[in-house]
Amino acid sequence: MYRVFIIIFVFLCSCKNMDKLTLYDIEIENTEGINGFTSTEIFSKGGGDEVWGMDDENCNPFSFSSFDASIDYSLKQESGLEKKNEQELDEFYSKFKLPTVKIKDIKKIIKNSIHLKTTKKPSCEWIGMGIGWDGWQGKDMSGIMTKSAIEFLIRVDKGSITNLPVVFILEDYSENQCFATANYLGIEGGEITTSWTKVTVPLQSFSYLKNKINLTNVKQLLMQCYDATDVYIDEIKIVKHENKYKRLEDNLTVFDSIGPITIFEDSLISSWGINHPKCSNLSIKKSNGNTFIEINTDSMSCDWLEFGISWNNWLYTDISRSIKDLSLDFEMKNEKMKPFTISLEDYSGVKSSYVISEQKTTSNSKWTVFSIPLYRFPIKKSKINLTKIKQIRFEFAYQTKLNLDNIKLTKN
Predict the structure, then answer these.
(1) Which of 93, 228, 232, 241 is buried deepest, with most CB atoms within 10 A?
(2) pTM for this model (two decimals)
(3) pLDDT in tens, 55-69
(4) Are β-strands 340-346 and 254-255 bridged in parallel, bridged antiparallel, or unpaired?
């Protein structure tokens, strides 16, 4: 009887220890990563077979780069001492004839970052790459989609860009996919330059409800180039993120069928490019109680030449039902005219553009009303998706001086 009691006691103790271990594991699971999701690092260095590009080199935009986001590559002015030292070295080497050294082995490029470069060849059906991060294991992302984002650092070789022509795709192990693009609001500072810039793509912006991807078994992240691209990407990871904007699903699409629809009148809420902190080419001005947009690219002080406005706070806007009945109206005061472009743009980055030429206007100091029926835009040719309009864009040339006001969509 005593022996039986000892066996029961040992069994109960072992069960108690098992319960403690289980609770401990649950606690670790809930505190590590993001809501227990620990596969947060998508890319930081190359290596292995997790990162891949197209077999057809003509359609492959991907290669590794030695650029490293942890290093500052900004140019520094040479001091007088450095120049003097260089001159002395040049004089020294000119006195001696040194033998030519042949390099037998070319050092392989360090896989610090991803270089996406393509001219978007029309013969390619798909131009892109993929990352099967965390050893290609199936990843359960179902608990992080509403409060997380894909974050990465990006730069260009020269100049700057405000639009990243890359579609981000999550794919599960049944090859179902959902999609998202990098919104202007997710680009830190509004432009991608030669310095590393942080870009945030909220997971909530992916079309996982519409496309029915299995979020409990995600295979990889794909990046598809839908236009000419030349960027460097590093430090891709999943981070906690509170999305300030509503998710862009069909049930939140705004149907604009009743005019007039005000795009700009007295103020701007959802816009970019105007009152840029580094450039005063495009700005909001007030005169005699009237608020207007001033475009002055007469100087070469900066190269900011475009702005965009979303009149529905960056929700999908469906104008497909009323495209034949709507006109774009605006008032313009023209001081120095150069042709400029007005574009409708959808959430895939496709634009349908109309050019305001010098022949269509005359220079004067008075406000003139313009009305452009939307059917004048090359809708069919551009293949723009009228059910998911993102914004209206204005792009100007140098040596332009004019004002815009009362931009609206009105019924014909």
Answers:
(1) 232
(2) 0.54
(3) 888 899 999 998 888
(4) unpaired
